[in-house]
Amino acid sequence: MTRLSRMRGADWINTGLLVAMTAAGLLHPDPGLFFAGLLQCFAVLTAIVLGGAYVSHKLSQRSGTRIQGPRRGRSMILQEAYESTRAMYTVACISAWPIAQIQMGDPSGLVWTTEAAGGGMLTIVAQFFFGVILADAWTYWKHRLLHTQLFFGFHKQHHSFRDPTPFAGFAISPFEALLTFCPIFLLCIPGAPHYAPMYFGLIAAFVGLNFYLHCGVTYRLAEWLLPKLLLNSSAHHNLHHSKANVNFGEVSFFWDRLCKTSWADAQAKKLG
Description:
The chain is 61% helix and 3% strand. By secondary structure, the protein is an all-alpha fold. It has a two-stranded antiparallel ribbon with strand order 1-4.
């Protein structure tokens, strides 16, 4: 199969996936409730992602140090915004399932008290850190998978943004969005409780980090602090956009260090 054929195949799969995920709502016990939740969630997610990207982009234009120097030509903001909007629709299709379940009054995995979470705050904090580690591993290996020859067609568009803006933070294909956010389905399982204040706090932190990773500038304090927390920085992730096959970590650089896929490892191999 040629590269062009794989790209066209990826486009068809992405389109079919959106159609299938939308049509799946007809199988819900209350399709009207499902689709109402889908549209509400899509509106909220799109407003947060595009609104946050707009604010982050304006800040990055006024302050910070440009990583790739003066921007060459026009940025691809409209294309980034389109891909982000499509990705948020995919996330809304996933989120509509637990949302409708909660609105129907059925038990779910989203809980608001420490008692319902199945333990005290110490247990919840431990679960939180374990969840972060799992999420980091999941996104890293998913990212490595998407850089293989077979699956790169689903990720290639994201790499067309070689000098990204915050609008590119979630500018991913529906297939990649499904792989990234499918753990949301766990909220449908009452036996897998997620403490809501910490869960939504983690999501907010992930969204904010993605804006910074794609803003195209660095801030001295952030570049000093984030690595100390084992988190990616804008300078670290920008190398992935400009060099492609290095720095795959989406949350932390831990797996890049462990698997020797960082930019520093690539340079060391050249010198060795």
